[in-house]
Each structure stands twice: as structure tokens, then as C-alpha cells.
Amino acid sequence: MLDAAIDLASRNLTDPETPFNMFQDAITSLSFPEVSRLFAMIEARAKRISRLSNFQGSAKFDVLRTLVEFLRRCSRVSDTAVCGRALTLLATMFPLSEKSAVNLRGHYNLSNITTFADHEDASGSAVADFKLYTKFWGLQKYLSRAYDVEDYAVWEKVYESMQQIMEAFEGTPVASTREADGNEEKRAVKFLTDPQLFRLQLGDGFFRRHILVQFLILLRHLRIVQKPEEAFDSSKSHTESAVNRRVLSLLDSIGPSGKTFGTGMTRAFYWEKHWIAWKANGCKPFDRAPVPFEASE
What we know:
The protein is mainly α. It has helices spanning 2-10, 18-29, 32-44, 46-50, 55-73, 80-93, 127-138, 140-143, 152-170, 198-202, 205-224, 240-252, 258-280. The longest helix is centred in the C-terminal third of the chain and has 23 residues, at 258-280.
């Protein structure tokens, strides 16, 4: 039916909204497993759909609105695969210069709040461990609000916590790296913050890698906003570049693929600066027409 609707719409033999209405009805009525199969069908026909005469008009926003509403229904923990299919479908159907998919103002996800124990209970945890525990999880507030760390006084506090956490990582051997194989299901996670688990988490390479990547993202933000000289004086030991090197060194030490992962993060941040410059310049289209082929005589 979908093929017939697309074919008729492309020939102007039916309402051009018909394929998009069918897509919207299917998304809102099917279960998640069925929607995943629907995405496979749409992906195979994405180019045909995007070439329909009305796709660049109202239909484009209908598709966008439908998929955004669908993503709101999904769980970020258990429905990551189908969420990925939806985002991939949007990336396939919309041009790279589509502004509706760009976080132009650089907003952070402030709804992601980490709660943890704020007082030591009778569990027998050592005082030193609990102090490190509170510093560790308290740092999440600043990692999710990087713009707060632009203040030098806040950076001093964050820097102290980061140093203590990295010292704890360096003093705790990695007990488990949980290197993912091809059959392991990937899930988004929200780590538990029970004080009883803290020492075990410090030795978990999977957990450690997530925290260190958060550090890199924060440091990258501070580099982008170009802090004043007094905040990142090269004569001080806690410069952004020094901390960045220490974080990368810790990433390299996690499992057999540590160096590969660290190199990948460095490359990702390198390419990100081009995206940042593109956004700052107003997301100008950079699609280019194919170069015509001229047969040699």
C-alpha cells in the first residue's frame, strides 16, 4: 500500500499528503517491534519519498513532528535501538543543512539530574571513601551544566574534584573492562549511586570510561569558550591541556582497546570544531551538485 501511495502521489493521481498520512497513522498505532519493521520499509523508500513534490513543504514538518512525538514515547534505556532507527531515518530524509535538527543555541539536557546519598549511613563505609563519593557524584551537576564552570571560582572547585577522582582511578586497578562483542546489546545507562557500590564502580572500566569522556566534553567546552588568561594560565599545573592529557592517559589504560578509544575521541573532537564553526556561521548549506562526467576522447 505504501508503494502504491508513493507511486500515485509522484504521478499526481492522488492527494500528495497520502503517503505521509499513512506513515503518521502507522507510527501512532503500531507497537515498537512493528515500528522497527516499518522503519526498514521507509528507509528503503526514503529517497523516493523525499523526491515527492510536497516533501519540502508541509509534509517535511509532518514527518518531523511525527518522529519527534514517537521519540518522546520511547524509553531512553530500553528502546535505544528503535530510537536510533528513527534518528537514522530523519538523517536519511533530511539534508545535513536542515536547521531543525541542529541545537543552534547549545542547550544542555538539564532534566538529567543525578541524585546520591548526602550523608554517611551506618553501612560502615570509610569516611575518606564517602568524601570521595560525594565529590564524585556531586561533580555531575557541573558536567551537565558546563557553562557554570566558565566561572573561574567554579572551575577551581571542579578541578580539585577532577584531580581527586583521577587519583582514585590511578590508584584502583581496572577489574573489568567488559569489552563489547558483536552480540552484546547496547543500552543507554543511568549508573547507580549507592555508596556501597562506589569502590566496585571505580574498578569498572566501562564505568570509568563514561566518566572520563564526560571530563573530555567539559574540557572541550572550556576550550571553545576561550577562557580568559587568568583562568587558564599556562604557568599553572591545572591548565585545561594538562588535565586533558591526564584524562587521555587514563583512557588509554582501560583494556586492550584503550588507545584506540582515546584516539577515536580525539578525532571526534577534532571534527566537532568544524561543526561548531558551521553552526556559528548560520548552518549554510554545503551540499554540492555531482561533478558531471566527461568522457575522454
